[in-house]
Design brief:
Blueprint lengths: L4 E8 L8 E8 L5 H11 L19 E4 L2 E4 L5 H4 L4 E5 L5 E4 L2 E3 L1 H8 L18 H9 L5 H5 L1 H5 L6 H12 L7 H10 L10 H5 L6 H14 L6 H16 L4 H9 L7 H9 L14 H15 L1
Amino acid sequence: MTETMTTIVIRRQKPGDARSFFMEHEVESGGKTVLDALRELRDTVDPALAFRAQCKSGICGSCAVRVNGQARLACNTFLSDVAADGKVILEPLLNFAVEEDLVVEDEPFWKAVEAMKPWLWNDKGYDHHEQVLEQVQNGTDCIMCSACYSECEVQAVKKSGYTGPAGFVQGLRFLGDKRDHGGKARLKLLEQQGLWSCAHMYNCIDACPKHIDIGGVIAGLRGQALSSGLGHNAGGRHVTWFTRGVRSTGKINEFWTLVGTRGWRIIFDLPTGIRMALKGKIPWPWGSKAKNSGVVKKLFRSKKQRSR
């Protein structure tokens, strides 16, 4: 029986050298993971090949690398599942400085998570509480592999002041812990750490090896922030006016959502607005209701009753 061969292409970079180069080598791929291939290449081709790995069980998160342009755990990614035209391209994670080969300087990730203070806020002592697993499970499932950090488009442009996907997951985890008394203060900190800056690309969800719904986490945090009287920013106003339009008419009112989001700053948009109006691109402010607007209103009422 002929063994399937896969070409492993590894982007390599040596300490102190900004240039990178590629190493190519064929390996037998049957039943092998990316980590298996890396270890084989280190043991048989180049003992200087640098990468991180510890548990080999998808728990520690240390072996995260980019595989064919997507952050993954090397230990549970099989070559047969990701090979494209017989090749698997391995690169270091994005949004990090490269230390050597596939090893990155991960201190920025830990500092970003630390910025949201991921520990219990409680100066009154702990009483016995029964925890609701669903309220803390996202945070406890997270293995801090930094794959989400690598794929986050916002993280690429905000080098500080943004706790990022993993930080938001930990934020919801502690807000759901009955021993934590952070409440509004923690939500305010999360706002300061970029809660409303998420660009909704959701690359983080695709990259997460634990399949955490990070987009849902961020939406949940924003909802809690608005319920706590926070959200006094463009992001919060956008959600409020977007929701207001859907609740009243059953569809998005783009005109008033824009006006409500921008506030008085809308005056700076007037030249653009006039040009859009002349081209017929400005939606009518008082549009008709959707045919199912009554159904939408019932959904809003039922959700409000459930939250009481």
